[in-house]
Amino acid sequence: MEVLVVSQREVPALLPMAECMDAMAQALAALARGEAIMPLRTVVWMPDRTGAMASMPSIIPSERTMAIKVITVFPGNLGTEFDSHQGAVLLFESEQGRLLAVIDATEITAIRTAAVSGVATRLLAKADAGDLAILGSGTQARTHLEAMALVRPLRRVRVWSRNRDHAEGFADEGRRRHGIVVEVAGSAREAVEEADVVCTTTSSPLPILQGQWLAPGCHVNAIGAVGPVNRELDTDAIVRARLFVDRRESAVNEAGEFVQSRDEGAIGEDHIAGELGELVAGEVDGRRSDDEITVFRGVGLAVEDLAAARAIHARAVATGSGTRVELGGTRARG
Question: What CA–CA distance (Å, rounded) separates 219 from 241?
């Protein structure tokens, strides 16, 4: 049986950010309507907690496709030649269970995560928002800059990173790739104050963003440091904000900002105003005033990987991209 293999280098051309945003909006709306099957991810840690392997399956029966992403997460790879997230997304059809494609997961994760933040920003940020702060200077910072530039006209961009050399490199790339002037801030606070859109894209297990820094009307996309014991935003930021998530079940188990704020008694389960898919479907209200602070806390969902893999596969087939290999799957005869 012939299977399509798509490399990391090929993924960006097959998954343009604008098209990925539309695919993410559709997938999250389907999830909110109960049209997707998606258990919580399974994570197996190395004994010394230096890294983990995670599996994320999902099925959308109406689309006759299913997928599973299997990745390793090694935060210590920062500064090396290896990405912190590595693995593959396996796309299947759901009539006979045939494996259709094996696609690099590193680039899918990078693009679809930022695309989801783009959807959240499009729905929740003020219409005239354009002062962007990015905390972190790695892969997700790169794709988030691209996504934010698509949904809002950026007037000013500031970046902060614990490693100033990395921040300078990110700023240079932003100018080179997007023609956007990116200022390097001396501190997270300096980057965030007066911003009306903030993206936190770090692996920090402790808060790097304090609620007291947030200007009225600010929208925050928090997507880094997933897990109940990790958090990029402090409790004050969550308490002050109208909070949206990609999925309630995932957030109450995997979003440290929510879990820890709840366990501290600062918020209750009802502090989650809605899921992003509910916003897309018009089932919940989004921003209610120009002064309201909104936070989207995304933990990353398997249904997003499924939607991305479907889009990549369709474009690869149409353009003749990728590599076809024989992997089996047909019953041996003779």
Answer: 9
